[in-house]
Amino acid sequence: DHLINQIAAGEVVERPASALKELLENSLDAGATSISVDLAEGGSKLIRVADDGCGIAKDELALALARHATSKISSLEDLQRVRSLGFRGEGLASLASISDLVLTSRAHDASHAWRVEADNGRIGEPEPASLTTGTVIEARDLYFNVPARRKFLKTPATEFAHCEEAFKRIALSNPAVQWTLSHNGRAQWRLAPQSAQARAAALLGDAFGENALAIDETAATLRLSGFAGSPTESRAGRDAQYFFVNGRFVRDKVVAHAIREAYRDVLHLDRQPAYALYLELDPEAVDVNVHPTKTEVRFRDSQAIYRFVFHCLSKALASTSA
Ligand code: ADP
Ligand code: MG
C-alpha cells in the first residue's frame, strides 16, 4: 500500500516543478500576499515555500498531509473555484510520500506555530515551533525512495528551468502578490506587488514595456485582458507567450492560432508575437480536467473563443496602425 502510494505520487509529482506548482497554488489558496521560494539542486535537494497565508491549525496539520484531505470544498463558491483551478486534494500527501517533508504553520489565532514531519510517509506528532505568520513547507531529497522516477530527472539546471517556468506562470497571473525565488542560495527573482503590466515587463522583458498593446474586452460571458507585445518589437516572442484561462496557465492551439492570425491579418506580419493574456469565462464553458497535471483545457465552443480572441487582438492592433 505504501509502495503504491509512492508510485502514484511519482506520477503526480512528475518532477520538482510539479511539486512547486502545487505548493504555490496552496499558498495562494491560503490568501498569501507574500510568497518566498528557495530551491536547491533544481528542487530535487530542496523545495522550500514560505507564505503569509491563513496558516493551518495544530489539529489540522496531520490531516493536511493525508490523502484526499482537501479543505477547499465547503461552499458552492468554493466548488466553483475548485472546479476552475482543478484541485485534487492530494498535493501535499503525494509530496510527503516521496520526500522528507516538514510542515510548519501558524494559524492566525494561534499563540505560536506547530510543525509536523512526514518521514517516509509516516506523519509524526505536532511539535511547538516558532514562526511569525503563515506556513512553511520544506521538502528535501525528492524521490529518495522512488529510484525509477529519480532516474528520469534531468540536470539541476534543467529542473531549475522547469521550476522557474512554473514560478513565472503563477507570478504572472498574481501580480498583486510579492514573490521571491532563490536557487542554491542565490536570489533569482524579487518581485514587488505591482500592476499586471509591470509584472509582465519584469518577468518577460521589453516587449511588455510602454509600447505594449493593452487589451481589455468583454463580450457576453467572455473577458480578455492583458498585453500583447508591441508591434514594433522585432524579436520573436515565442518564449513570451502566456495565456491564462480563469487564472490558470494554458497552452491552446486554437488561441495561439487566433492571436497569430490577427497579427497576420492586420499588420501583415507573420511572426511569433509576445503576449500575456488572461481569458475569463464561465467555468461551465471550459473543461479543465482534461489531464490534471497538464496545461490543456477543452472549450465547449472553441470556435467562439477563436473569434473572440481574434476580434480582441485585431481591434487592438488596428488601433495602433491607424
Ligand atoms: P488541496 O490543495 O487540493 O486541498 P493539498 O494536499 O495540496 O490539497 O493540501 C491539503 C490541505 O492542506 C489544503 O486543503 C489546505 O487546507 C492545507 N494547506 C496546504 N498548504 C497550505 C498553506 N500554504 N496554507 C494554508 N493551508 C494549507
Ligand atoms: Mg493543493
TrEMBL record:
Similarity remark: Belongs to the DNA mismatch repair MutL/HexB family.
Protein name, entry field: DNA mismatch repair protein MutL
Source organism phylogeny: Bacteria, Pseudomonadati, Pseudomonadota, Betaproteobacteria, Neisseriales
Function: This protein is involved in the repair of mismatches in DNA. It is required for dam-dependent methyl-directed DNA mismatch repair. May act as a 'molecular matchmaker', a protein that promotes the formation of a stable complex between two or more DNA-binding proteins in an ATP-dependent manner without itself being part of a final effector complex.
Transmembrane segments: none
DNA mismatch repair protein S5 domain residues: 200-318
MF (Gene Ontology): endonuclease activity
UniProt entry tagged with the keyword Lipoprotein: no
Entry superkingdom: Bacteria
